[in-house]
Amino acid sequence: xxxxxxxxxxxxxxxxxxxxxxxxxxxxxxxxxxxxxxxxxxxxxxxxxxxxxxxxxxxxxxxxxxxxxxxxxxxxxxxxxxxxxxxxxxxxxxxxxxxxxxxxxxxxxxxxxxxxxxxxxxxxxxxxxxxxxxxxxxxxxxxxxxxxxxxxxxxxxxxxxxxxxxxxxxxxxxxxxxxxxxxxxxxxxxxxxxxxxxxxxxxxxxxxxxxxxxxxxxxxxxxxxxxxxxxxxxxxxxxxxxxxxxxxxxxxxxxxxxxxxxxxxxxxxxxxxxx
Length: 275
Fold this sequence. Notes:
The chain has two domains: 2-86; 103-264, hpI Integrase, Chain A (Orthogonal Bundle), CATH 1.10.443. 56% of the residues lie in helices and 4% in strands. It has helices at 2-17, 21-37, 49-56, 61-79, 82-86, 103-111, 116-128, 132-136, 170-180, 197-210, 219-232, 237-244, 249-252, 254-258, 260-265, and strands at 143-144, 149-152, 161-164. It has a three-stranded antiparallel sheet with strand order 1-2-3. Helix 2 (21-37) packs across helix 4 and helix 7 (116-128) runs antiparallel to helix 9.
């Protein structure tokens, strides 16, 4: 069957090109769905560009962009026909400013946390601005105390980067390591399996609820808080971009718009007018 043939080929190519297991799994899944949708076509090269566009439009914006990346990858590295996919425009995400928590609200979440593992989860998310995938894939060998850095391996876009290791989180990590003895991952589940992103989300939501925060709080929001609070502390936006692993500084610039300190310092010209 032609679908199986192309899926098998792409699976090999995908594993050779991308080091991230999550990327491999997601891309192969997307391409499999795509090929079976067009299973009546004889070959991928014969699928009209317009039909591919119409198929992509069946999905929401975020899902559409993800599937578009996977389909482009398939045509480029397996079908060897990148031009056809390049003509498909990326869907633009709707722009909305993220809600952020204040430093006091973050402090409340730490204050109500009486579980050591949960405190480590919140501590690593907030102190380093980690994505949830980076947190659950973090291994002890990635934490370099001699240089006071954490090495983030094969992050989004299969890029490695380093973030600083804050001094005040080291005693917490030491206590946690001695008590839980997790290896090789920093976080493990109840049965020594790798911790899940769903479990991290539950921890964050429970802490926010326990702290009495009247806001919708999710895992990635803590990363937004890190970026915004760094801006408010005067850290250069280009440095924050590198720490967060943003490929474009425009993504980082959103923290300039959510910074309460910066916004409150802006004086309206009407203040110069006698009303």
